[in-house]
Structure formats: C-alpha cells, structure tokens
Amino acid sequence: MRNLWCKIFLLLVSCVALAQAKQDFFVQGNQLYDQAKYLEAIKYYRAAIAEGQFEPFAWFNLGNSLVQIGKNNIAMVAYRRSAELAPKFVRPWLLLGDLYFTHADYGLAIASYKRARELGEGSEHLHYAMAECYRQLGEHTLAQKEYEQVLKLNQDRIDCWYALAEIQEKLEDYSEAVRVLRQAIQLTPAAGADAFFYLAYLQLQRDSIPQGISALEDGLLLNPGNQMARRHLASLYVDQGSPWMSIFTLEQGLSPQGAPPDRDLQVDLGQIYFDQTRYPEALEHFIQAWKLGSTQGRIGAENVGNAFFNAGDSLQADEAYRRVRMKQ
Questions:
Q1: pTM (two decimals)
Q2: Structural domains in the chain?
Q3: 4, pLDDT greater than 60
C-alpha cells in the first residue's frame, strides 16, 4: 500500500512539473521579449503554441516579436490566428490595422479598426488611425469625424487640428480652415508658432493681407528665429507701402544675441534701401551679405556702384567697386 501511495505521489509531481514546463515556454518568451531578444522569444512562443498553452496570447506575442524583426507579413498571420482563438481579444485587430496601414492597405486597415471598435476599443490611436486611412482614400467627411473624435479625447492633439485645417484647405474652404486653426490656438497650448504661420498662410490664401500680417507677427513673437517667416512679413510690409516696418522687421532678425549672421536678411535690407535710392545704406548691407558668401550681395553692391556712376559720382562708384573686389 505504501508503494502505491509513493507511485501516486510521484505521478502527481510529474504532472505538475510537466504543466509548469509547458507554462514556462510562454513565460520565458515574455522574459526574452522584455529583454529585446526577439528571435529567441519567437522560439519559445512557438513552443508554447505547440503545447497548447496560452495559445491566443502566444500567437499575439509571436506577432509582436515578428513585427520587431520586420516580418510584418508573418506577423499578420499570427495576429489573425490570435483573433480567431480569442474572438473578443481586441489588440490583434488593432495591430492588424496598423500593419495594413503601414502597407497602404487602407481598406483592410479600416475593416480591422472597425472590428476593434466593435469590441470596445475607443482610444485616440484608433480614431486617429481611422482618420488617416479615410484621408488617404479621399473620404474627407469620414476623416473629419474621426479627427474630431480624437480631439474630444485630447484637445491638445495639434496634429489633428492641423489635419482638420488641411482638409478644409484641400476643399478650398479657407474661411473654415481659418476657423479651425483659430480654435486650436484658443484651446490648446500645443499650438505654437507654427500654428500662427499656418494661419498666416491661410489668411493670405483668401486675400486677407492684414490678418496674414498679424498672424506672422504673432508667430515671430513665439519663434523669432524663423527667418523665412520674417522675410515674408517684410515683403508684405513693402507691398503694403510700409518700407519702414519692413526695415524694422528685418533688422530685428539681425539683432538676437548669439544668432548666426543671416546673409538673406542683409540682401533684403540692401534691396529696400536701394529701392529708396539710399545707396550708402544699401551698399553696407549688400557688402555684409557678400562677405557671408551671397552672390546676390555681390550683385547688389555692384548695382549700387552702377547707380553712383550713372548719377555722375565716379568716386563713390569706384569705392563701391573696390569694396566688392576686396570683399570688405
């Protein structure tokens, strides 16, 4: 009798040990995955699948590992198998959608995301991904609804505000695009200088020059180092008959402490002074630009010399030509 109990005990111990060994494949796979040892993790997940332990989740984690090593097509198979084994498991559908999106299969991506939504997924990621798919397919109304859903969850998603404005821009409804962007600027601190620069572009597209100028000014207050925006603002001032404001704007761009010299600003300033026939000031800025390697600066300085010569001032003309030659 004693031998019988010993045999039963040993049998139970063996069964427990066997069950633990089966379970360990999945656990060890997870440990290897956490250590970024994806190839080794794949072996253990496959072993767990073969043993029938935690099979839906082993397939899912196998898919994750395959994605990490760039085997997206095989990962799709793993995610689909995970979803088949656990029909209410939402994550495989979400990641399937992401992989389809990566491969530009937007219709299949949307179908996967919709299934994830049916299972209760309502994250920012889901709505944003669906919006991007619809946008790629030209379904602007559906894309807009999804972007709006993201903003209900997180109004600081400036990328969604931009996307909504860009949709209206594509539809050439600049007034609506301006409204969207103004709302973004009002509601989220994430709307920085770039939001004002984009707003300026939209205002100018609908010929609202003063509003465009105002938006550029606001943007430059937040990002004074954006010289492209500064030059654009200066040119608008010139077009509006305010060369002094243009000069002021450009000179502000030259003044920041520690900022690298900008030859384009120097050329622009030289041209404004030249157009006002203020040749000495024009020459100084053109020469500065030429020193910084700008051929436009050299051409501008030579034009100043030509202007002096045509006006009969050969001494000033010779001095301008000399400075161009000597680059000083």
A1: 0.81
A2: 155-243 (1.25.40.10), 263-328 (1.25.40.10)
A3: no
